[in-house]
Amino acid sequence: MELFQIGFLSVTIVDVLDILLVTFIGFQIYRGMRGTIAAQILIGLLVIVMLSVTAQAVDLKAMGWVLRTLTDIWVIAFIIIFQPEIRRLLSTIARNRLVRMFIRLNVTESIEEIVATALELSKKKQGALIIIARGTGMKSFTETGVALGAQISRALLLSIFNPRSPLHDGAVIVNDRIIEAARCTLPLSPTTRLGDLALGTRHRAGLGITEQTDAVAVIVSEETGAISIADNGELFHRISVKDLRKELRERLVLSVQRTMQNVKEAIRPLE
Description:
Layout: E1 2-6, E2 9-12, H1 13-33, H2 37-57, H3 61-72, H4 74-81, H5 83-95, H6 97-100, H7 108-124, E3 128-132, H8 139-142, E4 146-151, H9 154-160, E5 171-175, E6 178-184, E7 193-194, E8 197-198, H10 201-212, E9 216-220, E10 227-231, E11 234-236, H11 241-267
Parallel strand pairs: 3-5
Antiparallel strand pairs: 1-2, 3-9, 4-6, 5-6, 7-8, 9-10, 10-11
């Protein structure tokens, strides 16, 4: 359907939607790269592309050939240079509630087992790092540990995080009601302090995995027994067992249910 004309160009509603979509994607890329070295590199690449176009326009053959050679490999260079930013952008998309509502999530039983485990480990001051997967694939992280594929249970988690267990050093990754792997190595967050709190390796690993994926991390401090939860690059330190259960239900179950209900209510008048 034509909306208006600019000279000999007709603008339709599809054109407007196309422009808005490209603008939104560009804004998200800008937000993800703002304040990083990648933003400066991106500007450099754009300058090279502009110089290439200019050189071809004024028929500078030698300069045009050099710049054209560079621009021919810019897609590969873009993927290599901006790999962390691209991964962060895709993870941000996966965190979207509308995307997650299409992902099967049945973790109510897992939440109770994890909460019970965290309570007992907290009392004993035994460290733990439990990662609960959501939409983002965790295969690259589970492959760094020991594959288990066992149904989750408090007894099994306590056995894994027993200081005498060969599996206790590292993270446990839980998907639905299955413990996929133990002793997994996770990326460390560059954040080393949270206010006056100095973050150790376990807390930085829990925070780091939530910066790169949409997983939720439950952390028990070995030094103090304090329970923390990390999600979406944020760390909530020293929470109670009651709050832990509430936060996990809110982040893993209720948010998806509310989104689905809102979508149903929005669709109902159209039926």
